[in-house]
Amino acid sequence: MADVFAKCRLPATYQFVKDLGVYPYYRAIEERPGGAEVVIDGRVLVQAGSNDYLGLSGDERVTEAAAGATRRLGAGGGGSRLGNGSLALHEELEARLAAFLGRAAVMVTSAGYLANLALGALVGPEDTVIGDRLIHACLIDAVRLGGARLRRYRHHDMEHLERLLDAGEPGAGRLIVTEGMFSTSGSVCDLPGIARLARLHGARVVLDSAHDVGVLGAAGRGAAEHHGVEDAVDVQTLTFSKALGTVGGAVAGPEEIIAYLRHYARSMVFTAALSPGCAAAALAALGIVAAEPERRDRLRVAALRLSGDLAATGYAVVPADRPVMAVPVGDDLLCFRLWRELFDEGVFATAMVPPGVPPGQALVRVSVTAAHTEAHLDRIASAFAAAGRRLGLTREG
Fold first, then answer.
1. What's residue 397's pLDDT?
2. Phi, psi of 2 (to 5 degrees)
3. Each residue of 196-245: pLDDT tens digit?
4. 53 inside domain
5. Where is the chain membrane-spanning (predicted)?
6. 3-state SS record for the chain
7. Which residue among 27, 331, 333, 348 has the highest number of C-beta atoms inside a 10 angstrom radius?
8. CATH number of the domain where residue 383 is located
9. How many Cα atoms sit within 13 Å of 334 on the Cβ side?
10. Residue of 384, 367, 1 lying closest to 182 (CA atoms)
11. Do residue 170 and residue 280 come from a single domain?
12. In a shared domain, residues 130 and 40
């Protein structure tokens, strides 16, 4: 008889990478002395892989709001939202998010992953979901949960998307799913093109705004505002763990859709409610996003400067004002070696290998935040320059 646990073996490369000292994952952060620095193994490093784009996770207004709500309401909710875990604080956050996003209704969840997983309740075996090749794993899991057919179009390729829509089953429901700003590269979806094709084919559009809410658009509402096509998006999801600096997620859309999800989305009904502290932190952060657009301006300037520095050094990076940039490496082991060289130089970035990226496309993900100073950006750029020379990755090598 086969042992069900027999498959639970890490590949041999795991121990090989560990023995080389270049294993980049599960590095424990001991302290965060500032919004752009971390302490690991007693060393202060520049944090160059964080999704805390606006530097709000350590903002005193956010942390004090979390502490106050925790003292008043406790560390946990004690149950699911459907049961006995709903708080007036949750409802206040939902109302504020709905007003901010310009949506009729919002459902707050305990995590961004759970917000996207809730979308599984919107589709069934008779439906087809067509998603960008690089959509996040939680969106793929949502389609699996709903039992729908999943078709993937090449990244940003509207012609391929149109062919898949044309080839769809007659009479089947169609749902197009995309990220607003893609988490690996910082590229922004072609939402106007998606909206045009959705209208032509009678498809619905879901926009995952995990990385673009708070960052894109004049008011920070995300990629749809950035492109001026907010009305073309039927359902929008977001997470609080990026620009809002805390934990949690939300689904925004028409009242009837949100009401349905409140009662049928398994990731909503069968999980504990968002903690009071996180709900209060998200509320405080949302107020800062609305009141301080200069944070987005500072973020764009920093991103343009660092991406330009990396490109000038010889890395295949296109200068842009997006906070996320992918430094392509290709080979997995070389990616780990680059990560370790950066770590030794005092920069804590993120190594991404399959399945996080397609095979043969390993990369180091770098992100900037509004908390990075000119000195921090200098350290990141100089670390990449030094590492590139040693590994032969740049023209200077």
1. 40
2. -70, 145
3. 999 999 999 999 999 999 999 999 999 999 999 999 999 999 999 999 99
4. no
5. 268-291
6. CCCHHHHCCCCHHHHHHHHHCCCCCCCCCCEEEECCEEEECCEEEEECCCCCCCCCCCCHHHHHHHHHHHHHHCCCCCCEHHHHHCCHHHHHHHHHHHHHHCCCEEEEECCHHHHHHHHHHHCCCCCEEEEECCCCHHHHHHHHHHCCEEEEECCCCHHHHHHHHHCCCCCCCEEEEEECECCCCCCECCHHHHHHHHHHHCCEEEEECCCCCCCCCCCCCCHHHHHCCHHHCCEEEEECCCCCCCCCEEEEECHHHHHHHHHHCHHHHCCECCCHHHHHHHHHHHHHHHHCCHHHHHHHHHHHHHHHHHHHHCCCCCCCCCCEEEEEEECHHHHHHHHHHHHHCCEECEEECCCCCCCCCEEEEEECCCCCCHHHHHHHHHHHHHHHHHHCCCCCC
7. 348
8. 3.90.1150.10
9. 14
10. 367
11. yes
12. no
Is 211 one of the catalytic residues? yes
Q: Which amino acid is at 385?
A: A
pTM of the model: 0.95
Domain count, the chain: 2
Structural domain boundaries, residue 314:
8-47+293-391
Shared-domain flag, residues 177 and 308: no
Q: Are residues 229 and 375 in the same domain?
A: no
**Alpha-carbon gap, residue 372 to 153, rounded angstroms:** 36
Burial class (CB in 10 A: 0-12, 13-18, 19+), 200: exposed
**Catalytic: which of 136, 156, 211, 376?**
211
- At position 356, the amino acid (one-letter code) is G
How many whole angstroms separate alpha carbon 280 and alpha carbon 299?
A: 24
Q: Are 252 and 54 in contact (CB under 8 A)?
A: no
The tokens describing 274, both together, are 């968002």
Quick check: is 52 in a domain? no
CATH number for 203 = 3.40.640.10
Average pLDDT over residues 296-309: 97
Residue 274 forms part of a structural domain: yes
7 flagged as catalytic: no
The length of the chain in residues reads 397
Residues 315, 257 share a domain:
no
Catalytic residue chosen out of the listed positions 90, 226, 242, 376: 242
Would you call 183 a catalytic residue per the annotation?
yes
